[in-house]
Design a protein that fits this description.
- The complex is a heterodimer of chains A (160) and B (48).
- Chain A has 160 residues and is of the alpha+beta class.
- Chain A is 29% helix and 29% strand.
- In chain A, strands 1-2-3-4-6-5 form a 6-stranded mixed sheet.
- In chain A, strand 3, helix 3 and strand 4 form a beta-alpha-beta unit.
- The longest helix of chain B is centred in the C-terminal third of the chain and has 6 residues.
- The relative contact order of chain B is 0.19.
- The chains are: A alpha+beta (160), B alpha+beta (48).
């Protein structure tokens, strides 16, 4: 696992591997529901990344704490370092943001990059996300939560 | 960036869809299944 991947996934510098050895994908996938879903993203039939989209208000682990209803929260992963720098991350975000806002009830989308990950902040802010405040997740990950309002996304699209 | 039409009728909340970039590159988004756990563990578990 690349050092920058570990740095991007946790503030715990003792981690030897992003997500740790005990990250249980079978469990994660078994917990999918109408408020929590992973997506595999494929390019010509080859998996290049994954995304998770949840309803943070209804998701049963309450990872996000008390949040308003009618939001979505995203996570994004790109696997092979060779697939980075091709614009796939931006494309994945475009696709999933559009999919989320197709639901007319969804007012905004949240994402939780580490506060230290300024490169991620710039990436999300280019898409129209705005920082809304620091929040510590899992008692150790200091994140700068970003939010994309529906109106800001529409303005972003019209500006392109 | 252009959003392609849904590939399946909108009969469930999570569904397959595609996005096409101006240069013709197409990404397919498909809901993960249990059979994807090996892929997720080994190949694409690297956060951006």
């Amino acid at each position: 696992m690349q050092p920058d991947v570990i740095a991007a996934s946790s503030d715990n510098r003792d981690l030897a591997k992003a997500f740790g050895e005990d990250h249980d994908w079978a469990h994660e996938l078994s917990m999918q529901s109408d408020v929590c879903q992973y997506y595999v993203v494929e390019l010509d039939g080859r998996p290049v990344g994954a995304m998770q989209v949840i309803d943070p208000h209804l998701e049963p682990t309450h990872y996000w704490g008390d949040v308003e209803p009618n939001l979505r929260a995203l996570d994004i992963w790109i696997g092979d370092p060779a697939d980075r720098g091709l614009g796939l991350g931006e494309m994945m975000m475009w696709g999933m943001i559009e999919a989320c806002f197709e639901d007319a009830n969804v007012t905004a989308i949240l994402i939780d990059p580490l506060n230290s990950n300024t490169r991620a902040h710039a990436f999300y802010q280019r898409l129209g996300f705005k920082p809304v405040g620091r929040q510590v997740f899992n008692d150790e990950d200091d994140c700068l939560v970003h939010k994309l309002e529906r109106a800001d996304w529409r303005a972003q699209i019209q500006g392109d | 960036m252009e959003r392609a039409a849904m590939s399946e009728p909108n009969t469930q909340y999570w569904r397959l869809f595609h996005i096409e970039r101006d240069d013709g590159l197409i990404l397919t988004f498909r809901p993960a299944e249990m059979s994807d756990r090996a892929t997720l563990r080994c190949g694409i578990c690297s956060p951006t």
